[in-house]
Design a protein that fits this description.
Helix content: 40-55%
Distance between the termini: 41 Å
CATH architecture of one domain: 2-Layer Sandwich
Oligomer: single chain
Order of helices and strands: EHEEHHEHEEHHEHEHHHHEHEEHEHH
CATH class of one domain: Alpha Beta
Bound molecules: magnesium ion
Length: about 375
Amino acid sequence: MERYIMHVDMDAFFASVEQRDHEEYRGKPVIVGGQSVRGVVATASYEARAFGVHSAMPMAIARRRCPEGIFVSGNHAHYQEVSQQIFGIFHDFSPAVEALSIDEAFLDISGMEKLMKNCRAYGQKLKKKIYLQTGLIASVGIAPNKFLAKLASDLEKPDGLVIIASGEIKRVLWPLPISRLWGVGGKTEERLHRLGYENIGQVAQAGEAELCKNFGQKLSRQLVKLANGRDDRLVETEREAQSVGNEVTFEQDIVTQEEAEAALLALAEKVGWRLRRVNCCARTIQLKVRLGDFTTYTRSRTLSAATCYDEDIYGVARELFHALHVHSGIRLLGITGSSFDIYGQASLFEDNHKKEELYSAIDGLKKRFGYDIINHLNAKKKKDK
Ligand SMILES: [Mg+2]
């Protein structure tokens, strides 16, 4: 089966959040970073980049290059909250999400056959959902592997969407400068230049034996592999992680028990789906509730048998929620499953066979038609009743 990896990277993330939240910053050079003497730039808006300001630059230089810039120290906790919202969207688009940083991730979208007929539409759908829910813009790259996907998301930044199909690798990759090769920077780049290599195609055509005359075998092999667009690293999914969680921040605080239960059910379905997709069961279910005034409660329960089923996760979360007796508006709800058992242990219990069949049918539909289909069907069913 051909692999499809999507790389999503938010454009000028911290600066864009500031511009979104402060109307008076829009269209202006905004520079987020440490304001002390030794501070560095964390993110510069595109308007600031036009002045030659970029991340990791000492703040003193940034001030010199862009005297009329808006300099803000930023609010990391706030960016973290926005990031969680964005990662929630990533998990709607793929069961295998690997975070690279606060605003960047790989999504393995292989095997979603129906969707794959049109990668571009899928990428556009993700970008649109991020924009509608957060007001922020992402760049997306889709390609057969991680290296090419990350390269693709950067090619038309900002607001980029680039797809590299397996038949186009040479055409797209070979004319690019060697600095675009993953892991090639500084010294290796300089040495390659001195040997007359300017673009990636020249490295690919030189071959491993030729490069070995000047570089170690390991590096030569790696360079030739990447220059030919080959990269077999996997998207590191939740199997390696310690927990699987989803949260939702409401546009307006919710007040009724029904709304809370509906949100918990939707969250339980997401967490269950993600657990099943990585063949894990969670023994501990944790509920998070944040009120309008930011008071935050977490409650958890450890089960006698681990589970990956929506209804079990929902049942526990619902009980924990009711035990809290929340009477004021709720800003955020979250469910996390942790303490993993490898999937399969649950089926030792005979009465799980039917459940397993049911869920594999549901998951099959989700995989074929996209995550939202089942939720739409459920919503329709409820309306029809
Ligand atoms: Mg970014």
